[in-house]
Amino acid sequence: MELRKWGNNSVVTEFVIMGLSSDQxxxxxxxxxxxxxxxxxLTGNLLILTLISSxxxxxxxxxxFLANLSLIDIIFSSVTVPNLLSILLGMKxxxxxSGCITQMYFFQYFVVVECYLLAVMAYDRYVAICYPxxxxxxxxxxxxxxxxxxxxxxxxxxxMLQVVSVSMLDFCGPxxxxxxxxxxxxxxxxxxxxxxxxxxxxxxxxxxxxxxPLTFIIITYIRIITAIMKMHSTQGRHRTFSTCASHFxxxxxxxxxxxxxxxxxxxxxxxxxxxxxxxxxxxxxTPMLNPLIYSLRNREVKAALKxxxxxxxxxxx
Length: 317
What we know:
Blueprint: E1 3-6, E2 9-12, E3 14-17, H1 27-54, H2 61-88, E4 94-96, H3 97-130, H4 135-138, H5 141-167, E5 176-177, H6 184-190, H7 196-229, H8 234-262, H9 273-296, H10 299-316
Helix pairs in contact: 1-2, 1-9, 2-3, 2-9, 3-5, 3-7, 3-8, 5-7, 7-8, 8-9
């Protein structure tokens, strides 16, 4: 363990990332599995971006937000997965203190941005269903851009609060991070200083950046469902429900796993296998599933994909 002297104390200059398990036998299997998932994530989300940018039928507010979600998922998964793959191959498991803090910053940044973006996407569906005549005005290009920029700004503010609070802690050893990436909660366990203030900041961020958007989404969907149930046409209700189904599924997957990992008493936090499995779900699987969910349940996306495939088939003939 590498330490440097700071006053009368020894200070950790690098951390060792434990990974998913200390058992070396399944490492190759996990490497191949996560490599395939990562490649599917990149391919799927890049395909969504390509379809939205190339097909004029997808130049609407809903797909503008979906394009931003795909971009976030690409970067979000790239923050943790490449490092995990190198660990599974038995390569360097150590990371410098600054590198660990940087990884934590970007991870928290994109977690928060996605939380707010999912709330914005829920609002978009709310306006489209409850105020269809005013939808083009309420969700014009300027408003859409302001909403997305606001999501990114909120992510920056919240992640900076996390980084500053954790950077002020002392780390005297041990330096083994019992996780497959640097995150806030496992770092609390390694600090040799009082973490009360940092944990308070952490919980405030969880409430503001996590539970705040989730509460907004729930209220929004209550209003959406109320408006749908007032429709006289059964076919109209079914069609309207289907436009929200993809987003609602993504929210359920993202928040379902995220709540288990973060809405957890930090004083009794135990980084056991179950918590790591849940972390794998929302950091690795969810970014892969998002484009699949939207493409499989969306006729317009499937139509755009068929158009591109048919054009390529004509070219190759």
